[in-house]
Design the sequence.
């Protein structure tokens, strides 16, 4: 059995819960948030924390408000 790394973002804020895709590499996860932070902020997401197998691996990333 091959275990693949599981990276995802915990997204906080917003009226509706935002969901992160699951990534096989940290690079892909970081690239995704870099490309989508504006849309996430527009949804009300205020903070993103990178998780590896459910455990935080970075300090929370504050997203600028889109107001």
Sequence:
């Amino acid at each position: 059995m091959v275990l693949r790394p599981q990276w995802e973002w915990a997204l906080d804020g917003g009226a509706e819960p935002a969901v992160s895709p699951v990534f096989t590499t940290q690079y892909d996860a970081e690239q995704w948030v870099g490309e989508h932070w504006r849309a996430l902020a527009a949804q009300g997401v205020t903070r993103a924390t990178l998780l590896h197998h459910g455990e935080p691996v970075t300090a929370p990333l504050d997203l600028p408000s889109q107001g």
